Amino acid sequence: TDIINTDNIIYTPHVAWNSVEAETELRKSAAQEVKRVLEGGRPLNLVNKELLKCYQ
């Protein structure tokens, strides 16, 4: 059967992270990363690492 057209399934978006505490932690970690980079450090969770060599 086509899962999209199944009547006995309820679809909901995944927003389990969305809480006051999680948003506070997100803001805190983002600010810490900006501070780290401004002080000459490397970002902890750099996704596009190939760009890092452009700034060395």
Short description:
The protein is mostly helical and 56 residues long. Helices cover 34% and strands 0% of the residues. The protein has one helix at 20-38.
Number of strands: 0
Share of residues in helices = 25-40%
Indicate how many domains the architecture comprises.
Answer: 1
Major beta sheet summary: none
- Could you say which overall geometry the principal axes of the C-alpha atoms support? elongated
The total of helices stands at 1
Residue fraction in strands: under 5%
Secondary structural class: mainly alpha
Distance N to C terminus:
54 Å
Give the uncertain stretches in residue-range form: none
Q: What number is the mean pLDDT?
A: 85
In angstroms, what is the radius of gyration? Answer: 20 Å
The ordered string of helix (H) and strand (E) elements is: H
SSE blueprint:
Blueprint: H1 20-38
Explain how this protein is built.
- With 56 residues, the chain is an all-alpha fold.
- It has one domain.
- Helix content is 34%, strand content 0%.
- It has one helix and no strands.
- The mean pLDDT is 85.
